[in-house]
Amino acid sequence: MSNKTALYEEHQRLNGRLIDFGGWELPVQYTGVIDEHLACRNAVGLFDVSHMGEISVNGKSAEAFLSYTLTNNIRSMPVGRAQYNLMCNHLGGVIDDLVVYRRGKTDFLLVVNASNTDKDFNHIQNVAKTHSSSFTELSINNDSPKYTQIAIQGAKAVNIVKQVTNANLEVIKNYWFCEERVLNKIPAIIARTGYTGEDGFELYVPWETGPELWRALLDIGNSFGIKPCGLGARDTLRIEMKYPLYGHEISDNTSPIDAGLAWVVALDKDDFIGKSAILKTKQNGPARTLVGLTMIDRGIPRQGYAVFTDDGREKIGEITSGTMSPSLRQAIAIAYLNSSFKYAPGVKIAVDIRGIKIPAITTPTPFYKRPY
After folding, report:
1. How many domains does the chain fold into?
2. Which residues of the chain have pLDDT under 50?
3. Which domain covers residue 39, as residue numbers?
4. E strands along the chain, which residues?
C-alpha cells in the first residue's frame, strides 16, 4: 500500500491522476504534462513534494559530522543558507544528492530524495555510530512525517508567496531561506530553491497544515495563472535544465566527477567519505561524461537507449533521461558518453530507438534558459 501525503485529498478534489511513485501515491498530472510544464515556465506551478525526506542533525558535533559525511563545504555556511550537496560512499559513488539547510550554529536540516530517505537515514546513523568517539554530541532524527513540503515555481511565484507571509522575500536570495509564519499563524521554512530552473520557493510547514496552505496558494494564484503540477511536468522541467535525478544520472556507482558535479565536492577540505576515490577519479580523468543531446529526426530517447557514433558502428554511451521538451518542441536527452568519445557541442551522433538509429546532435546545457 502506498503512502499518502497530507495533500492526497486535495489531489483527488482536483482530479489529479494518481500513481505510485517510490511508495507514495502522487499525481503524475492534472490537466496534462505539457499544459502544466508551460504554466510553470510562463506563469507559476504548484507541486506537492511532501514525499521528500527531512533528516535533522543537531548538536555541537553536527558541523564536523556533516563535513565528514558530505562532500561540500558545510563549515562555510552561514545560518539561513541552503546548500546543494552529495553524500557518497567510500568508493566515491553517490548515495544521494540533497539540500542542507543551516538553521543554527549547531542545527541542520537535510532534505533528501524520497526513495532514499530510509537508506540515507540508516547510513547517517551508521557513520555516527562508527565514529562515535569523534562526534560525541550529536542528535539525528528522521523528521519526514512532520513536514508538508510545497514547491511554488515560476516567474510569478514571488507575487503569490508575498501574500501569504510577512517575510521579506527580497532578502531571500537563491539558496537562502528564512523561518517565518504563513497565513499569519503557520510556522514555515521559506526557502528560495527549486528543481525547475524557474524562480520560486519551497514551503515547509507542519504536516497537518498543508491542505490549508495549498488551497490558499491556489486561490491567491488564480489571477496569476497558477496551475497544480504533477510528477510528469516536474520531470520534463528538470530535464530541460539537465538537473540530475537519482536513479538516472546518479547512483551508488556514479562518481560526482562523471556526473559533472565536481563543483559540489570540496576536495580542499579535511577528509570526508569518498574523498580519496573521488580524487583518484579526478586525477585519472572520468570514464564517461554526462552531456546533452537533441534529436535531429523524430523519436523520443528514453533511459537505457544506446548512443552510437554518427555512422552507427560504435556504441559510445547510454541515455539516462529523455523527453519531448514542451518549451523547445524538440526531443532532448541527457546521456553518458564514454571518455573515448571526444565530446564537443554540435557533433552528430545516433540514438538507438527500438532498433533504429536516429540522428542526434550533442547540445550545450541547460537546454532551456529562462528569459528573466
Report:
1. 2
2. none
3. 3-50+146-240
4. 3-4, 17-21, 24-29, 44-48, 53-58, 82-88, 94-104, 107-112, 139-142, 147-153, 177-182, 186-191, 200-206, 226-229, 288-295, 306-309, 315-325, 330-338, 348-353, 356-363
